[in-house]
Amino acid sequence: MRSSCRFAVAVHVLAVLADKNGEPVSSTLLAASVNTNPVIIRRLLLDLQKAKLVETKKGAGFGSRLSRPAAKINLGEIFRAVEKHEPFILPHRKPNMACPVGCGIQHALEAVFISALRALERDLSRTTLAGILRSARRGGVSAREFAEKD
Question: Which helix (H) or strand (E) holds 54?
Fold first, then answer.
């Protein structure tokens, strides 16, 4: 089974950008906050840029910043921007259709998976990036203080 941390890393990166209030932030600083390689962050930023959540510039004044206020970005948008795989998938092999359970299990699970994905996206859409940043700030130092330590 496959799972991904891209969503969590994307929220982390966007929260750092929100904390910087429009200042361009380098992928190196973002990677230091996430504790990963800047190449990973740059790849993630490409998806966030395609979704119009960030703007990135190269050259003088380089870096990334949010494309709109954190209060206008919700976690549902972030999830859809970075998660390329469905969170719930059926096995590739077909079940035994001669089995009384096997012949109907895929149909039954598909309905549950659709409902669960809708609930997940609905719940994520209720939380803004600004709310996540407020919560993260209560838990430790701000991204600004982190950058000043480097």
Answer: strand 54-57
Q: pLDDT digit string (tens) for 80-124?
A: 999 987 778 888 899 999 999 999 999 999 999 999 999 999 999
Is 132 in contact with 124 (CB distance < 8 Å)? Answer: no
Cβ atoms 83, 44 nearer than 8 A: no
Spatial contact of 70 and 18, defined as CB atoms under 8 Å apart: yes
Q: What is the pTM of this model?
A: 0.82
